[in-house]
Known about the structure:
Blueprint: H1 3-13, H2 19-23, H3 27-34, E1 36-40, E2 52-56, E3 61-66, E4 77-86, E5 89-97, E6 108-117, E7 120-125, E8 128-134
Amino acid sequence: MTLTKFIYGVLVGLVLTNVSAAASVSDEDIRLVLIGSWVNAPGQSKQLSIPARQIFRDNGTTTLYIYPTSECRDPAAYFEGNWAVIGGMLITRITGSTHPALVPIGTIEQLEVLAIEPNRIVLEADDEVYVRDKSETCYAEDARRT
């Protein structure tokens, strides 16, 4: 078993629920938990619960799909980028966009990691809190994977 797999296994067993706990987790631990597919959690404000799914890959690339409806069938837009975790911040730089007028190539987004669990992450930027759940699909009953 590699050290990376061991660390990931330890993280899966932990449930971190507050800001101070998130601050004690290393950037590498956060990165390992983030790898996979994440969706906007239900129950957020209308603006924050836009149907979306973001995939974080181990190679540092990401794709964000935005859907026009909660069925998450055909994305209205998608954005590609590179991501990293530095100092407890999730930093994404957009490298490709189907709607560059909406999110221009080169845009850098920085989100503070407030709390992280194996299947949920809480992020903050500009006094807005975002909750994402690890899932291959959106929450609609008939949603399908892109």
